[in-house]
Amino acid sequence: MSNSSSLKKVLVTGGLGYIGSHVVVSLLLTGKYLPIVIDNCHNAYPEAIKRCAEIARDEMGADAPQPIFHQVDLRDSSAVDEVFAKYAGEGGIWAVVHLAALKAVGESGEIPLQYYKVNVGGSIALLEAMEKYNCSNFVFSSSATVYGTPKTVPIPESSPLQAESAYGRTKQMVEVILQDVCRASADKGDKAVHAVSVRYFNPAGAHPSGKLGEEPMGKPGNLLPLLAQIAVGRQKSDLKVFGDDYPTPDGTCVRDYLHVMDLAKGHVLALDAIASKSIFASCTSAEGMYRAFNLGKGKGMSVLNMIAAMKKASGFEYKYEIVGRRLGDVPDLTADPTLAEKELGFVAEKNLDEMCRDLWNFQTKNGDGYSKQ
Ligand code: WQD
What EC number is given for this enzyme (predicted)? Predict the structure, then answer.
């Protein structure tokens, strides 16, 4: 195994989180990248980094590269600066994968200023530090929610950005900021920022080992972790379905669920594409070295479909109440995944049964999750 000093250092913000921790594992397993995680532990546990290291050792052997963790809040610009300075002498941080954000569609409508401060303010602080330390490779965790209610489904990347939730608008704003930063730096040689926004559809599942999964603090806001926690008795079984009067086959919202390990793979492919510059050939200096890709499966599943799928995986008989629509929800977010497949080589291969099986395996193996570790 190559020793860590020869690996490209990749700063992963929010790397303790659900997506972030799976990205950290995927980076480690490439043998090319060394993840350096910063996270403020607002919605994640330090235990996650130990699990990532354990999985790397399980799969690569005792001398597997080990991830590095610094508890840092992106809004603390001096702390962020210290992290970049710390690695400046060792060749510096080669790229940033930026996942740290507040991410609940419904909640964002209740506390929008918090969402703008963290998601937009935090991204600007990070980009300033990158500029200061000549780090010019960036993968941004964007979201399908930037499309709002799209005119066509499945949704291509060319669909207008018209987010309908504060959360989605923060992601849309950061994409716009990124394009301006790429445009402004396009003629600056090795200081030209090369950025890729990966627009997540709905991540689901957990690492197949059961050692890593979705462990939000408190009651999950998202459907799948909530279903898993209800089935193991961690949450009361007062499941509410937010609306069945949408223009969809069964009236409930449709989302494009993809396995979190496939989603994590998409980040590695985006970094590889930045390294090879393969995807920027069509970019002009007037536009800047910026691309955006959907990371989805291209298969829409409704809320009721997902309840049935989790019943099949867990054996739990869910009871639910149909209530009013949730602020910010849109009827159908299903990806057209063809551009990411063509240009990144990205395919979300795992199926719904694997997503639900791995989610259930994680939940049953981690009764109280990471919180009690
Ligand atoms: C899915 C559907 C709800 C809970 C998530 C992330 C967001 C983004 C996209 C990355 C919706 C319904 C939910 C419940 C319900 N990911 N639901 N009862 O809103 O699509 O967003 O994926 O950027 O960050 O939050 O996912 O799981 O919250 O909702 O009926 O108790 O399930 O209304 O239709 P969402 P979700």
Answer: 5.1.3.2
pTM over cut 0.90? yes
Give the integer Cα–Cα distance in Å for 252 and 244: 4
Q: What is the ipTM of this complex?
A: 0.96
Pocket test for ligand 1, best of 202, 226, 330 (most atoms within 8 A of CB): 202
Copy the structure tokens of residue 99.
């996942």
Q: How many CA atoms lie within 13 A of 290 on its CB side?
A: 20
Residue 131: what residue type? E
How many other C-beta atoms are found inside a 10 Å radius of the C-beta of residue 282? Answer: 8
SS3 157: coil
Dihedral pair phi/psi, residue 13, rounded to 5°: -80, 140
Task: Say how far apart CA 348 and CA 258 lie, in whole Å.
Answer: 6
**Residue 167 falls in the annotated catalytic set:** yes
CA distance 114 to 305: 33
| Residue 101 near residue 197 (C-beta atoms within 8 A) | no
Burial (Cβ within 10 Å: 0-12, 13-18, ≥19) of residue 57: middle
Counting Cα atoms < 13 Å in the Cβ hemisphere of 177 gives: 19
pLDDT in tens, 82-136: 999 999 987 899 999 999 999 988 889 999 999 999 999 999 999 999 999 999 9
